[in-house]
Design the sequence.
């Protein structure tokens, strides 16, 4: 039984204050039909040159290292993760003995958990598809990092006063100038294709159809957690390249359904307020009737009632 | 109508010195955090962005402050007036608890100076569970201070004495106190209900926080009914906190605990615990997570410890009338409930949380433990100070006063007040008088 069914069940058994039907027919109110830009990564073409890492550092003013230092293949001995100083990393996997390289960065989800989680809307899924971060709003609670299903956002833990959440920016400034992201521009083997997400998905499926031996029949990111702007083609399941195995439901679904049910037009909170006020009024004259032990059962029942009506 | 008075005890005792030194160690690490960053004193990293500052200072702190709203609901909404002796201590605990949640957050938040941002309409985030928690906690903290104002009025109205140049403000302060005295009683009921409502909302939402991480949480704890479980466990731990606090305060200040009241609260708690337990078990059966119990490992161990030690054992103990009427046994059972809820919050936020690319398990650094311990020590000291300044603790006479005497006192006092000019006390009196 998946979570959505369970939520439905809760509604059906009367535990949810708002009728469960309304919640279940509206699977994720937050989801927007964003058809923006994306990047298709064809892992079968990647040669592991790590030039994208270098270009990313350049474009985003991250600590610079000479291009030659990226030719060091010892980086592949361990599985690296993006961090506050590296928005993208290339990892090597050998599921069948032969090396396969896969670039890792923010996936720019269609329905991003970070944006749903953020307490001050510091994360925004823009209409062009970019998940952008605004440090001036951020209060540094790091709930975005907790919520990310890809474990991408990183934090500047050693910055005492103005730490930021760091992750792939999709090279926003370059996009505004009409240029492709730095990693895409530098890729020498055209492993990265930048374009409209819907066109990239069509392209990916054409590639699979043309070369069914070269690719598995799955575009990673087409449906995962409701879809992502970054899409992957590969010869083996992406989970073998150490990508997470994820379902199709957007991660914020359940919380937002709960949240929007509890606060549906503020009716449930106001109803609870009125209900408590009612009890206060009705019991006002019995205050001296508090028999020694007998009153406990009533109090218990009443406290439990509160619990039962608030989900 | 509560007969409460400031506690007449020496403030500095050996225990206080111990607490003060814990505070100083905490301050040392907190200063380092503000100079060198969160990373300098904590084991927090991109795998584990949340540590004990969230699991203990915030999540457990909020849960353990639930005594404030459960006693307020019991005494003022359900009008069980015999419990009024417990309301003020519980209110003070809640007030300090939430204040320290906010203080603790200042250490944990990377940009602590932006903590007010959720109040800005331009940054409101209706989808965010954390936004709801934040807003509700801010409002509830305000409500708690308003609920505490009558105590301040009772203590200082007509006897404001300000030192030095502050003495110029004496008139203003007196005026404000009289204003509060005249107005608060009439509207207090609205705030009391609001306090209960806000508590129900954010206690449950704290649980909803972790619903968003299905892929990172152990199935023994991850369930869409986490908000309901959090609310139920908060309600269940409210009275045990009042019990612990009353027995403990009675012991420290050499008084007799209000055993009549506490043991009947204990009975309620056992019912609440078993309701909670049945929901927990029902959820596990429905979702088919029972087999995870038999997977050896830290998670299943912690889960069993939490459920057996923190729910089943105290629930069973509190069924026994003999245990409920003995102060040490009742204290032990109540402490187990508190332990169970704290362990539950730690389990949900830390033990169950498994990053996708974890290289090592999180364990709090010395600095994190020191800051948390420092906050708790400060809270205890401020509580101690507050009860010596304000009339919070119920007055104890020579003999152990019975419930009937209490009720009689309350009634007499109220009759007096009906005849004389209304004086600021608690809300309910004022409501009835007005």
Sequence:
């Amino acid at each position: 039984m998946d979570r959505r069914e369970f939520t439905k069940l809760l509604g059906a058994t009367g535990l949810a204050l708002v009728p469960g039907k309304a919640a279940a027919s509206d699977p994720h109110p937050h989801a927007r039909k964003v058809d923006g830009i994306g990047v298709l990564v064809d892992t079968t073409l990647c040669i592991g040159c790590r030039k994208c890492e270098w270009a990313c550092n350049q474009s985003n003013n991250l600590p610079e290292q000479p291009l030659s230092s990226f030719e060091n293949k010892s980086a592949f001995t361990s599985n690296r993760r993006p961090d506050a100083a590296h928005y993208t990393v290339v990892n090597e996997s050998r599921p069948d003995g032969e090396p396969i390289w896969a670039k890792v960065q923010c996936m720019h989800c269609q329905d991003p958990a970070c944006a749903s989680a953020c307490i001050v809307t510091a994360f925004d899924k823009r209409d062009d598809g970019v998940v952008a971060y605004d440090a001036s709003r951020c209060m540094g609670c790091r709930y975005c990092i907790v919520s990310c299903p890809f474990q991408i956002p990183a934090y500047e833990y050693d910055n005492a006063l103005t730490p930021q959440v760091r992750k792939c920016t999709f090279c926003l400034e370059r996009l505004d100038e009409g240029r492709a992201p730095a990693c895409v521009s530098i890729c020498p083997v055209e492993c990265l294709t930048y374009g409209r997400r819907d066109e990239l998905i069509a392209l990916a499926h054409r590639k699979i159809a043309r070369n069914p031996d070269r690719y598995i029949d799955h575009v990673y990111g087409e449906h995962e957690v409701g879809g992502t702007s970054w899409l992957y083609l590969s010869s083996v399941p992406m989970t073998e390249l150490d990508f997470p195995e994820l379902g199709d439901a957007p991660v914020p679904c359940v919380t937002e359904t709960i949240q929007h049910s509890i606060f549906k037009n503020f009716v449930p909170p106001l109803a609870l307020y009125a209900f408590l006020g009612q009890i206060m009024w009705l019991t006002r004259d019995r205050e001296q009737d508090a028999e020694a032990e007998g009153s406990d059962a009533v109090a218990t029942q009443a406290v439990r009632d509160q619990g039962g009506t608030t989900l | 109508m509560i007969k409460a008075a400031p506690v007449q005890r020496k403030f500095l005792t050996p225990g206080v010195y111990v607490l003060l030194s814990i505070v100083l160690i905490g301050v040392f690490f907190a200063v380092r955090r503000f100079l060198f960053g969160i990373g300098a004193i904590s084991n927090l990293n991109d795998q584990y962005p949340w540590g004990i500052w969230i699991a203990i200072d915030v999540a457990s702190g909020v849960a353990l402050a639930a005594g404030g709203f459960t006693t307020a609901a019991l005494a003022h909404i359900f009008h069980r007036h015999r419990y009024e002796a417990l309301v003020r201590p519980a209110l003070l605990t809640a007030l300090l608890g939430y204040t320290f949640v906010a203080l603790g957050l200042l250490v944990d938040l990377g940009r602590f100076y932006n903590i007010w941002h959720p109040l800005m309409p331009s940054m409101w985030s209706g989808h965010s569970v954390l936004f709801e928690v934040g807003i509700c906690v801010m409002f509830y903290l305000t409500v708690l201070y308003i609920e505490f104002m009558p105590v301040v009025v009772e203590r200082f109205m007509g006897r404001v004495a300000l030192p030095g140049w502050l003495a110029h403000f004496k008139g203003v302060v007196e005026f404000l106190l009289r204003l509060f005295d005249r107005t608060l009683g009439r509207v207090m009921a609205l705030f009391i209900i609001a306090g209960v409502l806000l508590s129900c909302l954010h206690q449950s939402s704290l649980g909803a926080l972790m619903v968003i991480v299905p892929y990172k949480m152990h199935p023994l704890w991850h369930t869409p009914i986490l908000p309901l479980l959090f609310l139920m466990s908060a309600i269940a731990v409210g009275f045990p906190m009042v019990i612990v606090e009353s027995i403990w305060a009675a012991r420290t200040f050499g008084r007799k605990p209000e055993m009549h009241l506490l043991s009947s609260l204990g009975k309620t708690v056992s019912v609440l615990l078993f309701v909670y337990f049945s929901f927990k078990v029902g959820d596990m059966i429905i979702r088919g997570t029972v087999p995870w119990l038999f997977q050896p490992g830290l998670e299943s161990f912690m889960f069993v410890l939490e459920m057996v030690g923190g729910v089943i054992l105290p629930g069973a103990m509190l069924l026994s009338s003999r245990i409920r009427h003995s102060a040490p046994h009742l204290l032990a059972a109540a402490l187990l409930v508190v332990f169970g809820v704290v362990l539950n919050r730690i389990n949900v936020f830390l033990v169950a949380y498994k990053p996708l690319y974890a290289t090592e398990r999180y364990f709090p650094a010395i600095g994190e433990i020191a800051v948390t311990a420092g906050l708790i020590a400060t809270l205890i000291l401020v509580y101690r100070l507050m009860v010596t300044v304000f009339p919070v603790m119920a007055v104890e006479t020579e003999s152990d006063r019975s419930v009937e005497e209490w009720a009689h006192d309350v009634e007499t006092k109220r009759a007096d007040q009906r005849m004389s000019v209304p004086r600021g006390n608690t809300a309910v009196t004022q409501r009835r008088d007005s």
Observations:
- Chain A has two domains: 3-29+255-310, 37-251.
- The beta strands of chain A are 37-42, 89-93, 100-104, 123-125, 131-133, 154-155, 165-166, 192-196, 230-233.
